[in-house]
Write a structure and sequence with these properties.
320 residues; mainly beta; Immunoglobulin-like; Tachylectin-2, Chain A; 3 domains; six-stranded antiparallel beta sheet; four-stranded antiparallel beta sheet; 18 strands
Amino acid sequence: MVRCLRYGAIAVSIALLIPSALVIANGTFYWEDDFLDWSKIDRALSYNIELRDSKVIMKNTYKAWYYPWPKMREIHINNAGPPKEAYVLPLEVHREPEMQADYSDLRFVYVYDDKVYDLEYWVGDCDDCKADVWIRIVPELPSGESVVYMFYGDPNAPSNSNFDIVFKWDDRTDPDVMISYKNYMEGAWDPDVAFGGGRFLVAWEERLGPEDRPYYMERASYSDIRGRTYNSDGKDPQPPPETDTDIEIMVDKSRHGEDPSIASDGSKFFVVWEENPADMARRFEIDIKGAIVTPDGKVTPLSEPICDAPDIQEDACVAY
């Protein structure tokens, strides 16, 4: 007796050896096997099967193979170093005829500690021949050899390519340091930095985007001047980012500040900036304001504007 099955593009056949003595006159017979070995299976007529734990299973199939895509390739990875958490792996995927032209049908699956993970990926530069693809391997890439399964071949599959999920801040900027922690709808522009009293002070303008609007309409929205200090190694940020606070050099919802400039006398900082009412009709009433900031983050605004002459005063710069 031969039993044939098909899973995707994989065909399976199992041929059973039936002793003639078991055949009964009406064609009914009883046959039993515990599948401990191949003694009751015809190897010549059986293919793509293996015996495992007293079961006949499809050969070379794993729990990661659950996509109904007709094509799959194994990607073997050899990590000669220590385990790497949430590792981003670059791949060069050569296009095959079954792949969509823009590689939208790619899917990546990984098994770690007997658990299946769908991997996030991003398709970068691509053409008719190949694509640069980055996959984020979670929860970690272990030492030694591991396998990622790449599925493809579904002509109707939508793209799951996502740059922002694959590349986190550290991936994009390492070894850079993030300084401005802000709302995702805001921007930070025109920073300046000075060193004094054993600390760096970095200051910037922070407000809703975009950076430049027609007719300088960005000046009609409020904009803060904020800051943070670091030690001489660029570490120990104060206030710490996890507190979700900054040094508030100029924070006023009715005012618009821009273009901070910083100087230090060695013990304290002098910060100056442009400032105008956050109002469409008065957006060009621009003055120059200032404040003293200590290395520990204490802010003392100047009691009077540095310059409040009529019309536009801008692009302030300070030196010691």
